């Protein structure tokens, strides 16, 4: 296992099987951020086991449930700044799910190695037994699927107005993030040779994506103008080819712009615009929803977004209740007309009321 991980979470070094499992994932080429997230979640679980005096290798479902209870009641670092937590207390539902993933995968590994007979972390898989009311596997923490937030027209205009005062780099990054529905990592990882100005497309390399699926996506003519202006400015920072977006701070001048720098920029501008819910991922939700509004088929949107499954795409698309009502009314007009058409037609000869 990476010594940096054991240095960050010493508990990993005290459990041979845990370190072995993380080492295998690292050797398989998983993204460093994924390994780091798995290490954190597993380390917190191991510490919980040590606190309760249980052996994580032979732990039961009750031990895992105790870990979940601890996460549910853990005070938030944000303290009084927390507006709402969907789990009711402690960590949010999404964070609880994230913490349990490495624990479940760790026990999958122990089962595959013959160390255990079963996995104490339930997946909540659909089974025929559950379908007919039987007792099938259930997740320890029910997953909550919340509607993604996207800005209304007025809020989007507020954000655009605030970004107009930003440097060329930041304006271009927002435009590309929306035009191409780019994730934060995909946007910040773009290189100069990923651009094709002649066809107004960018190449999203597989190694920078969450699903490891490369794709080529277009951008609009206004974004092309922003790109040309930024490239002229970029030459004043560095003439070397490589990362497209460069830091211009005195400490990191001409270095690749980090994910955190972009996140802080978006957060600052969102607060200035009076739209605090706007984030680096909002543009992706908004773009995919706009494509759905324009009548794109879900499979085309999934390809555009780089999703492996259309199920993921459907979670991103957020049509408002009013838009759904308009679609329903438009389609039901034809349905209703067809259903009552026979009533308006003359009855066949010989037919009569009974």
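^ Assign residues to that structure.
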């Amino acid at each position: 296992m990476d010594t940096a991980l054991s240095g960050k979470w010493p508990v990993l070094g005290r459990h041979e099987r845990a370190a072995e499992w993380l080492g295998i994932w690292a050797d398989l080429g998983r993204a460093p951020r994924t390994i780091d997230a798995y290490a954190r979640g597993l380390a917190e679980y191991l510490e919980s086991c040590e606190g309760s005096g249980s052996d994580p290798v032979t732990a039961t479902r009750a031990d895992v449930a105790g870990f979940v209870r601890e996460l549910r009641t853990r005070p938030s670092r944000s303290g009084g700044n927390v507006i709402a937590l969907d789990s009711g207390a402690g960590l949010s539902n999404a964070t609880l799910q994230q913490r349990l993933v490495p624990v479940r995968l760790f026990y999958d590994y122990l089962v595959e190695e013959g160390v255990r007979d079963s996995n104490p972390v339930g997946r909540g898989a659909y089974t025929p037994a559950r379908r007919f009311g039987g007792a099938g596997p259930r997740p320890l923490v029910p997953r909550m699927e919340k509607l993604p937030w996207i800005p209304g027209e007025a809020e989007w205009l507020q954000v655009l107005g605030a970004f107009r005062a930003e440097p060329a780099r930041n304006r271009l990054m927002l435009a590309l993030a929306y035009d191409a529905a780019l994730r934060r990592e995909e946007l910040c990882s773009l290189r100069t040779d990923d651009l094709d100005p002649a066809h107004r497309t960018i190449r999203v390399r597989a190694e920078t994506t969450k699903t490891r699926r490369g794709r080529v996506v277009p951008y609009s003519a206004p974004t092309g103008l922003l790109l040309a202006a930024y490239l002229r400015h970029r030459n004043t920072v560095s003439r070397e080819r490589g990362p497209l977006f460069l830091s211009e701070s005195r400490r990191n001048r001409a270095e690749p712009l980090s994910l955190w720098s972009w996140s802080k920029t978006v957060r600052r501008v969102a607060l200035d615009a009076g739209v605090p819910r706007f984030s680096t991922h909002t543009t992706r939700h908004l773009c995919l929803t706009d494509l759905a509004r324009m009548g794109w088929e879900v499979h085309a949107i999934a390809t555009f977004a780089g999703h492996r499954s259309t199920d993921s795409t459907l979670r991103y698309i957020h049509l408002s209740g009013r838009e759904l009502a308009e679609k329903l009314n438009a389609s039901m007009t034809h349905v209703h007309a067809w259903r009552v058409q026979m009533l308006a037609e003359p009855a066949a000869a010989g037919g009569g009321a009974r």
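The first helix runs from residue 3 to 8.
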